[in-house]
Structures are given as C-alpha cells and as structure tokens.
Amino acid sequence: MTRTDSPDERKDDSLPSQIWVLISASFVIALGFGIVAPALPQFATEFGVGEFAASAVISTFAGMRLVFAPASGLLVQKLGERPVYLSGLLIVALSTGACALAQSYWQLLVFRGLGGIGSTMFTVSALGLLIRMSPAHSRGRVSGLYATSFLLGSIGGPLLGGAVVGLGLRAPFVIYAIALVIAAAVVYFSLDAIEDHEAGGDSSMPVLTLRSALRVPAYRAALASNFATGWVVMGVRVALIPLFVIAVLDRSAAVAAVSLAIFAVGNALVLITSGRLSDARGRKPFVIIGLVVSGIGMAALGLTDTVTLFMIASFVAGVGSGLMTPAQQASIADIIGSKARGGPVLSTFQMSADVGAILGPLVAGAIVEVYTYGTAFVLSGAIMLAAALWWALVPDTRKLHEAS
C-alpha cells in the first residue's frame, strides 16, 4: 500500500496553520527538554547517589521510549494521532512536575521513566499528524521546518537551563511542566478543526500495516538509514566525541561542546533547503548524499589530530545529517500517505533509530578499548555508507506515488 492522496491537490506554497502550531510546539518541547537536561543529573545526586545512578535516570527515559514505542503505534492506530499526541504531552508535563516534587531517588527514577512513555507517544503521533496535514508537494519542506524547530530548541534549551538552575534544581522541572501544559492547550484548540473521522479512530480509514510497509523497498531502506543515524549521530557522536577530545586531542571538554555546536550549525544551515529541494527533485538523492557526506565526516573525526580539522569534520558531518533527515522523513510520509493511518509503521521507524542509539555507543566503546578511536569512528562512517548503498538500490518514493 502506498500513499492515497488525491491527484488534484493544488500546488499552494502556504502551509496549514496547524502545521505551524506543531512546529512551534516542537520548539517548546525541545527547549524545555534542554532546560531540564543540565539539572537532572545534579538533582539526582542530591539524593545521595553516585554518578552511575544519576546516569540511570537519563537512561530510564530513553529505555521507556524504546519499550513503549510499539504500544504508542498501536494507540495511534486505534485512537488517532491527535488524542495520543495530547495525552503524551500531558503525561510528560505531569511526570516532569512530579520530578520537581520527588522526595527520593526512586521517585525521581519512576517519574522520569513515565516521562519516556509520554515522549514516545507524542513523537510517534506528531509524525503522523505532520503526514496527515502536510500537502503532498511540501512534505520535505515541512519535515525540514519541523526538524529545524526541534534543533533550535535543543540548542537554546541548555543555554537557558544553565540560567534557570540558579533558581534551584527543582525550578527547571516546574517551568518545563507549565510550558508543556500551555503547549498542549494551544495544540488542543488549534487542531480542533481536524474532522473527527481523521483525528479519531474511524474504522473506515485506510490502514497501512507494518507487514505491508515492509514490502516497500524504500521503507526497509529508511529503517536501515534511521538505524545508522541513531547509531552514528545520536549515539557514537555524543558518547565518543568528549572522550576523543580529551584522550587524543588533549583538550578540555569545552572543545567537545564547541564541536557538538558546530555539528548543529551545519545541520541547521541545510535542513530547510534540503527539505524543500527534496519536494522538487525526489527524496532518494538527498538521503544518499546526506548519508555519504555524514559518513565521511564521522569517519574523518576519528582520524584528525588537530582541533581545526576536527571542527571541519564535525561541520561536514552535521551538513550531511541535515541533508538527509527531511528527505528520509518525507519518504515515510510518501509511503503512508495523508489519507491512511500507520501507527506501527511510524513507531517501528522511530525504534530503528533508538536501537541504533543504544547499540552504537556500546559497540564503539568496546572497539576503542580493543583497537583505537579512529577504528570506531571509521566503522561508524562505514555504517552510514552501507545505508547509502541500500538506498541506491531502491526506487524513489515519489516515483512510487506517481505509479499509484
């Protein structure tokens, strides 16, 4: 089954107002997550636990996202995107507010884990809403805008969080909880215009099952590229760069922070443009080019011996990631279509990145212990190149649409 959009959709450059609401909500969510991030480990240690236990609070959030992802997909399939999205936001808001009231480490751990459940609920349903509301000719553009808003929030959040911590370690959680409640209210009233049969669980709505999606070559390629992205961009890059900077470049952790920021800059510079171009020229070229560029940049990171070359490689890797992300997400939208529902399809796509983000640092860390940092980074780059090769062998999803 492929997308079921009407062939006579108008090529109007304007986007529905509801999409801008989701984009704005994405920025608020990422900003708030970044506000909480600097305070969370330190807050955990206030209960008298060590670094490992403090880190477990962060891992619990990610673990619950992964474990609950299939259930989130089923909820979207049965109830619709809008109620699952709003429920997810409120669950994260309530769990975050509860974190501010935690009186023990175990309470904090449980409350943070509940937040992971809400997080995967609104992540999966948000992608479904974007697919449903995006004009077919602007899917890449919408994906680029959405990714950019989240990226900007992720950059600004930690900066704002450093200032908020001055109000006390519980303050960031209160502020984030309030912001999420407000965001949920805005989304509730803004998306109220969506017809009930599209926003709710209408049994007459076409359904794209996971089994059907797996028959589409481009979907299998998207799972592979999203796994590679999770492994390299979300996992190895974050885990190994700080260690590499200290052990190999003999510099402080501040250099690692600058490198991560430069990666984000390279990403942000191309997200919107690559998304818009993928609407006109197809998804496949941008996914392949992005995977190749990002893979080369990541491999080069581990082979550098100066800070200048290290920063250049970080920028290149960021540009590559920005080139492929909107096109990859738009390809999933092409496969599902705006008139069908595919909750498990979306949750499996998300899980592929989560699994990569968990396995990548573990495998790369083991490689570093036995071999070198260079070997670990080069292997990570090779994984991106393998995903690019996979994409080279499948049809562009826009061609699938034209044939449907």
Beta-strand residue fraction: under 5%
Please state the overall shape, judged from the principal axes of the Cα atoms: globular
Distance between the termini: 9 Å
Integer tally of domains: 2
Query: How many strand elements?
Result: 0
Q: What is the H level of CATH, i.e. the homologous superfamily of the largest domain?
A: MFS general substrate transporter like domains
Write the CATH architecture name of the largest domain.
Answer: Up-down Bundle
H/I helix tally? 16
Instruction: Give me the Rg, rounded.
Output: 21 Å
Task: Tell me the major beta sheet.
Answer: none
Structural summary, described in words:
This protein is mainly α and 404 residues long. It folds into two domains: 17-199, MFS general substrate transporter like domains (Growth Hormone, Chain: A), CATH 1.20.1250; 210-403, Growth Hormone, Chain: A (Up-down Bundle), CATH 1.20.1250.20. The protein is built from 16 helices and no strands. The chain has helices spanning 17-36, 39-45, 51-79, 81-101, 105-133, 139-164, 171-190, 196-199, 210-214, 217-247, 253-281, 284-301, 307-336, 343-370, 373-392, 397-403. The protein is globular and about 55 Å long.
